[in-house]
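> forwarded from #structure-qc
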């Protein structure tokens, strides 16, 4: 049986900050470590969501594309889904969703994932247009994004929570992606309102961090020159 206690992550959000956007893992390799996940393509080519072993890309035009195993990414994570039913939620804002997911605590010191299946009275997402070499910084590249909005849409919100201690490796707090059942909207979530949904949670005791050591740009970059925390906060 697959290990459902491990969150596998390739790359770090910090490497995106200075524009290290080269794809260094294939989707086939990522799926070997999980059937659920999120990420972005080379050059920030859209927003990715993996559900039930199928990898989807929401591109900057709002199209939902099923990805082949040779699709490459600079940053992504995956895990084998084993969500435990937590609760049902209705008329919930992002803050209320986070409070429920954290069981009322102000924070968590471990990684976990939350899955919400239901109807959303409001959903606002974004997807970034693919950039080409020479890659610009994360902040600059993220300016070329498209915003999508929908009302009363049914779908899946996939969220990953990272402890503040790991900010830079990932986004401290919640990082949410969405895909509508009818593929009418998806992407990185900017805002939402849950009309009614079932909430499942999966807690990880292990973070498997995989780094692109064969990529010269990554290996030689001096991250001390980058304001990683501010850049991630601005882009996310």
């Amino acid at each position: 049986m697959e290990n459902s206690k491990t969150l596998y992550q390739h790359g770090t959000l910090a490497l995106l900050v200075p524009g290290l956007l080269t794809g260094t893992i294939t989707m086939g390799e990522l799926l070997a470590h999980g059937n659920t996940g999120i990420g972005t393509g080379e050059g920030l080519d859209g927003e990715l969501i993996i559900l039930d072993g199928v990898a989807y890309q929401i591109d900057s035009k709002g199209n939902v594309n099923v990805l082949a195993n040779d699709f490459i990414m600079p940053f992504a994570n995956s895990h084998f889904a084993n969500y435990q039913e937590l609760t049902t939620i209705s008329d919930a804002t992002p803050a209320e969703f986070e409070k429920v997911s954290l069981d009322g605590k102000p924070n968590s010191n471990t990684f976990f994932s939350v899955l919400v299946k239901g109807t959303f009275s409001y959903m606002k997402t974004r997807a970034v247009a693919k950039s080409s070499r020479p890659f610009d910084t994360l902040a600059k590249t993220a300016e070329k994004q498209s915003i999508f909005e929908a009302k009363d849409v049914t779908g899946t919100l996939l969220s990953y929570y990272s402890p503040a201690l790991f900010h830079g490796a990932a986004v401290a707090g919640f990082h949410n992606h969405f895909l509508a059942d009818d593929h009418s909207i998806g992407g990185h979530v900017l805002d939402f309102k849950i009309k009614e949904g079932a909430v499942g949670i999966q807690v990880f005791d292990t973070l498997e961090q995989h780094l692109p050591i064969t990529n010269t740009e990554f290996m030689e970059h001096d991250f001390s020159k980058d304001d990683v925390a501010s850049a991630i906060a601005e882009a996310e």
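QC bot note: The mean pLDDT is 95. The chain is about 15% helix and 45% strand.
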